[in-house]
């Protein structure tokens, strides 16, 4: 058996600020509206949806490093850890057996002290009582989550959306900016007070109220963030569940500050479990760290070796060539995190001197050899990934930058827009989720479908100047939250694996002259009709989802007949039957072939539309696309040409099978009753 986590954190851009202590006050409205305040209106966006639901924060990214701001949290903000993680990865749980929790009961897995940094604590046996609990968290989420093991595991929400508000920073205070975000932690709600102008230029305040799974104000420490987000996930990873956590928000909103400590905290808990609860059971912890830069993957722990992303037969994402390091102590993990971070792609933009230009994905993978020994290759039990998103930026923020920087920004925005499209599609219950819109969404796919857990940490800035970005972030978070309502996600998962009936696309079966279609001939002679080699020609290359042509071959007619998406199960023919003509089965197979073709055809169109939509959104949202327009048009044309070729090929195939179907009916007619 193995343990595993999949954990992801997404962060977008960052800026360096210094904070004057705590800042916000619980449930107090710090915003002072201007004189004309009578037209206040409340918009509960979480209910009504609001407008511009998918606008991403487009503020230029700030600095990713230099996180020493200290500030109100009082948590372990000083770590040199990765900013964030998001778990999205494939992981094979086939051989994983249930983990016995017996030995865990009563064990003190983790007791953190508010305001105490991780490094201060005994890495494995910290026994300090967790203080505070502003958020009303249990004293020890990890151990409590383990107690009734599976029951607890099933109680962990599939998608959890947490909002964290940071305090006003020095710059904002110096400019006398107002805090326009009030929070109510016990109600898990917050309100954004937006100042607007009427046509007569008088001011009024519009309130936007949101409710999330948790709302963390500026006084909440990083320890508490961990308890609220990742800690509850740790136990269920041992129960063969994937989990993802990602941070989202505008530049400088605190994503890195929030995400940085999480991987190490999670590592500590994982190792504690392995060293205590599961000691001697053959579990191994592996560490990997890679980035997506310019749409390509690079190993941050292996000289930036280029990696390939592939999907296996179960549509699980595999990173081919990714170097994994076996680790057994927190210090080693910290070193690897530092090493990976130092290798990340950073650059200077007009808005950020040290801006992250990539999405970084850090993974903690738990494996175990099948027999519990280390003699055999270990199998993956679970994985925890943390994804730190690069900062988004507007075209207007990049005018001073060179072409490479602009293209980097465009690529980053493209992937974030693709992510937005996926969330929109999931939210709209669309049958088709455009995960292939970008490498990022391909990687993130598993965090939204299947048996996974996702935690999104939405970071917001409280100052009036960030109002638009804050609303965008909250609306985005609200969309993600809606995915977890009721059984919606289950429905999505079901839909993902359900094929849409295409009966209308299948040509009708031609009736006999007398109008009947059900009186098939008995069995034509084999010489008259070869059910294998002749009737079923080798299939021409078909366009696969990954954009490549792939040839499928079938060894015999029986296999061909089985190729029915697992839906139709032709009867196993007897020896004599296999030598005989089975018109029902053959026709079914033919129709299935046609249906598959039509599906593939439609998929091509959908893929093309995904790409076009993302590209067009990018152009629309870019304030000053400049040379990017030409680049994208060229790129788009190339893609369209490829798609056109693929579709042509599919059409040819379709025509081929239609002809076969006609021949088939002619044959049936000629050998009629
Ligand atoms: N809750 C908080 N309490 C105190 N300081 C904070 C808090 N959140 C953020 N900060 C400080 O604000 C500054 C910006 O935060 P951070 O770098 O994490 O933002 P970011 O969202 O990651 O930005 P970017 O998108 O540019 O990477 C840092 O100096 C950080 O220390």
From TrEMBL:
Region (Disordered): 31-79, 504-586
Domain Kinesin motor: 158-483
GO process terms (BP): microtubule depolymerization; microtubule-based movement; regulation of cell wall organization or biogenesis
InterPro entries membership: Kinesin-like_fam, Kinesin_motor_CS, Kinesin_motor_dom, Kinesin_motor_dom_sf, P-loop_NTPase
Bias kind Acidic residues: ranges: 524-537
Entry GO CC: microtubule
Classification via SUPFAM superfamilies: P-loop containing nucleoside triphosphate hydrolases (SSF52540)
Sites where the protein binds ATP: 249-256
A GO molecular-function annotation: microtubule binding
Cited Gene3D superfamilies: Kinesin motor domain
UniProt biased composition (Low complexity): 32-48
Composition bias, Polar residues: 543-568
Biased composition (Gly residues): 67-76
Pfam families listed in its UniProt record: Kinesin
Keywords linked to the UniProt accession: ATP-binding, Microtubule, Motor protein, Nucleotide-binding
Keyword check for Phosphoprotein: no
CDD domains: KISc_KIF2_like (cd01367)
Keyword Lipid metabolism on entry: no
Family, as annotated: Belongs to the TRAFAC class myosin-kinesin ATPase superfamily. Kinesin family. KIN-13 subfamily.
Protein name: Kinesin-like protein
Organism name: Centaurea solstitialis (yellow star-thistle)
Taxonomic classification: Eukaryota, Viridiplantae, Streptophyta, Embryophyta, Tracheophyta
């Amino acid at each position: 058996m193995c343990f595993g986590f999949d954990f992801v954190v997404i962060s977008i851009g960052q800026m360096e600020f210094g904070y004057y202590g705590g800042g916000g006050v619980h449930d107090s409205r710090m915003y002072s509206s201007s004189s004309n305040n009578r037209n206040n209106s409340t918009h509960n966006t979480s209910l009504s949806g609001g407008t511009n639901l998918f606008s991403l924060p487009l503020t230029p990214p700030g600095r990713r490093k230099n996180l020493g701001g200290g500030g109100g949290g009082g948590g372990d903000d000083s770590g040199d850890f990765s900013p964030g993680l998001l778990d999205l990865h494939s992981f094979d749980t086939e051989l994983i057996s249930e983990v016995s929790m017996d030995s865990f009961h009563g064990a003190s897995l983790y007791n953190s002290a508010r305001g105490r940094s991780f490094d201060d604590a005994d890495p494995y046996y910290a026994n300090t009582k967790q203080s505070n609990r502003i958020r009303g968290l249990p004293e020890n989420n990890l151990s409590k989550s383990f107690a009734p093991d599976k029951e607890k595991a099933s109680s962990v929400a599939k998608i959890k959306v947490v909002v964290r508000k940071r305090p006003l920073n020095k710059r904002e205070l110096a400019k006398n900016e107002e805090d326009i975000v009030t929070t109510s932690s016990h109600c898990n709600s917050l309100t954004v007070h937006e100042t607007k102008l009427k046509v007569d230029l008088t001011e009024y305040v519009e309130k936007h109220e949101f409710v999330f799974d948790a709302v963390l104000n500026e006084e909440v420490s990083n320890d508490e963030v961990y308890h609220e987000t990742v800690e509850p996930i740790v136990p269920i990873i041992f129960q063969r569940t994937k989990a993802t956590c990602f941070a989202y928000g505008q530049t400088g909103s605190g994503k890195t500050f929030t995400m940085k400590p999480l991987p190490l905290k999670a590592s500590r808990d994982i190792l504690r479990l392995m060293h205590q609860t599961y000691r001697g059971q053959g579990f191994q912890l592996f560490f990997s760290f890679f980035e997506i830069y310019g749409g390509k993957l690079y190993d941050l722990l292996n000289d930036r070796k280029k990696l390939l992303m592939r999907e296996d037969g179960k549509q699980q994402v595999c990173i081919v060539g990714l170097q994994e390091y076996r680790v057994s102590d927190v210090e080693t993990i910290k070193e690897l995190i530092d090493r990976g971070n130092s290798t990340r792609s950073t650059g200077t933009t007009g808005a950020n001197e040290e801006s992250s230009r990539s999405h970084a994905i850090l993974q903690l993978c738990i494996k175990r050899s099948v027999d519990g020994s280390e003699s055999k290759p270990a199998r993956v039990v679970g994985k925890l990934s943390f994804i730190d998103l690069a900062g988004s930026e507007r075209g207007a923020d990049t005018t001073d930058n060179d072409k490479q920087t602009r293209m980097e920004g465009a690529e980053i925005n493209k992937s974030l827009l693709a992510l937005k499209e996926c969330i929109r599609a999931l939210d709209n219950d669309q049958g088709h989720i455009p995960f292939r819109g970008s490498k990022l969404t391909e990687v993130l796919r598993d965090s939204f479908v299947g048996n996974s857990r996702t935690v999104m940490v939405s970071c917001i800035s409280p100052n009036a100047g960030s109002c638009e970005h804050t609303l965008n972030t909250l609306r985005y978070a609200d969309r993600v939250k809606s995915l977890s309502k009721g059984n919606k996600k289950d429905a999505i998962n079901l839909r993902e694996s359900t094929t849409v009936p295409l009966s209308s696309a299948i040509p009708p079966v031609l009736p006999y002259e007398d109008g009947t279609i059900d009186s098939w001939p008995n069995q034509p002679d084999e010489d008259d009709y070869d059910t294998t080699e002749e009737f079923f020609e080798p299939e021409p290359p078909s366009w696969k989802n990954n954009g490549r042509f792939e040839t499928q071959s079938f060894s015999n007619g029986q296999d061909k007949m089985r190729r029915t998406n697992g839906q139709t199960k032709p009867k196993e023919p007897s020896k004599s039957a296999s030598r005989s003509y089975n018109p029902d089965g053959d026709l079914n197979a033919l129709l299935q072939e046609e249906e598959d073709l039509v599906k593939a055809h439609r998929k091509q169109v959908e893929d093309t539309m995904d790409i076009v939509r993302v590209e067009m959104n990018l152009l629309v949202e870019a304030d000053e696309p400049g040379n990017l327009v030409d680049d994208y048009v060229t790129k788009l044309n190339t893609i369209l040409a490829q798609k056109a070729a693929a579709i042509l090929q599919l059409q040819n195939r379709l025509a081929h099978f239609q002809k076969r179907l006609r021949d088939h009916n002619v044959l049936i007619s000629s050998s009629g009753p």
